[in-house]
Amino acid sequence: xxxxxxxxxxxxxxxxxxxxxxxxxxxxxxxxxxxxxxxxxxxxxxxxxxxxxxxxxxxxxxxxxxxxxxxxxxxxxxxxxxxxxxxxxxxxxxxxxxxxxxxxxxxxxxxxxxxxxxx
Length: 119
Ligand SMILES: Nc1ncnc2c1ncn2[C@@H]1O[C@H](COP(=O)(O)OP(=O)(O)OP(=O)(O)O)[C@@H](O)[C@H]1O
Ligand SMILES: [Mg+2]
Prior knowledge:
Layout lengths: L3 H6 L4 E6 L2 E7 L20 H17 L15 H15 L24
């Protein structure tokens, strides 16, 4: 059981349901599935063709040339970084069955342990 303040602080990764007079935390969703809802509804992705195109091109290059690629997505809070990742991963899953998607989440307190996310 959590109160409304705690419920408001949790992001879309957490499944929070409003019950009679309180909020109930039911668990954590898989990382890439935490799309935020707008007034309780999922919204279609608008724009981002350029960014998705860049990610697609890097992925194709990585596959064709057998090299590793890294992309850093940086933007102010709420601009759509998670949504971009989510759209891209959804497209990848649909497009190529052989792809294996691994997700790690960093923690500022463990900045000194570079391989910490692999645990
Ligand atoms: N291109 C888009 N089309 C439609 N909705 C979008 C788009 N980009 C973001 N949104 C919506 O805007 C909201 C905020 O986006 P998102 O959670 O991806 O931001 P963020 O940059 O990851 O934020 P934070 O820094 O807090 O993690 C979400 O509801 C998301 O679905
Ligand atoms: Mg985000």
